[in-house]
Amino acid sequence: xxxxxxxxxxxxxxxxxxxxxxxxxxxxxxxxxxxxxxxxxxxxxxxxxxxxxxxxxxxxxxxxxxxxxxxxxxxxxxxxxxxxxxxxxxxxxxxxxxxxxxxxxxxxxxxxxxxxxxxxxxxxxxxxxxxxxxxxxxxxxxxxxxxxxxxxxxxxxxxxxxxxxxxxxxxxxxxxxxxxxxxxxxxxxxxxxxxxxxxxxxxxxxxxxxxxxxxxxxxxxxxxxxxxxxxxxxxxxxxxxxxxxxxxxxxxxxxxxxxxxxxxx
Length: 265
Hints:
Blueprint: E1 3-7, E2 11-13, E3 20-21, H1 26-33, E4 37-41, E5 43-45, H2 48-60, E6 68-70, E7 76-79, E8 89-90, H3 103-111, E9 114-118, H4 125-136, E10 142-146, H5 161-168, E11 172-176, H6 177-182, H7 192-197, E12 201-205, E13 211-215, E14 220-224, H8 232-241, H9 250-264
Parallel strand pairs: 1-4, 1-9, 2-7, 5-6, 9-10, 10-11, 11-12
Antiparallel strand pairs: 2-3, 7-8, 12-13, 13-14
Helix pairs in contact: 1-8, 8-9
């Protein structure tokens, strides 16, 4: 069974009671459903939301050995769009902003074949340093950076540190149209921003559109249609598997991963 590790944000979705978002929830769930052995690493509060998140991970078979509990900060909370506003908001600071290095995190990262992190989890210098250290332990893995929530992460576009350090330690960036705008990248231009940062592949996702894997020189090396209701995590899994979300066996995911990685390099 292939192994994956998700490291970064986890937050309670106030718009959908009982559900959680962030790379430690969405991507971890998609990988688990596709047959991967997943360990998630994040930091939650010593509160009801944190207890609910831990119970949910265990109920769906996601490893939580690397989940830390913060005695002071609350579990992250995603506030839905307010009337008159076109933006949702993720409250700060949250427990995941203070993710700290420990042996469990290093072990989980070093054992994984795929490690997924997110821009939201990098918005604080403490967590950013911890995630970067974990990714250094995962040099043999495919390291994926999720940029699909960049516009609502509470990170000003003038703060380049989260993006710069994320790309430096990433092989593949997954980004949607809003994320491209946040990064200052036009669809009509090449992906030089990502190439300079260090990533060698970019997965461009849009709801109801085929997802496209491109080298950072701008060459599209693959495309696959996905259902309109698919999430960015589902889109990533669909591309790696070459099938619809949820239909792939682990072996076909790994085979697709190897072909895509070879083609992009």
